[in-house]
Amino acid sequence: MQSILLSREEVARRAKQLYEGGIRQKVEIEENIGKMVIINVETGDYEVDNTGLQAAKILQEKSPYARLFGIRIGYSVAASFGGVMERVSHDFRYCD
To answer: In the chain, where are the structural domains located?
Structure first.
């Protein structure tokens, strides 16, 4: 089954909504801080690993055409090139 067409903005919006709606409470524990959670925005399935690569592979094996989105647990950005990644407070909210 082929995935539905979604804009990048819609993929991000859905992923953030899923993350804040329940995934965050399950994955944002001390041992996962700094790891990546990859979310299938169509099904709500998610996987966690250090870089997100294995998590994405697992999700794509289940749904080859899945629209995936990655969030670094405990941070407001997934990666920083030449900058500093700062931890966010536990009660942060995403800005749209």
So the answer is: 8-72
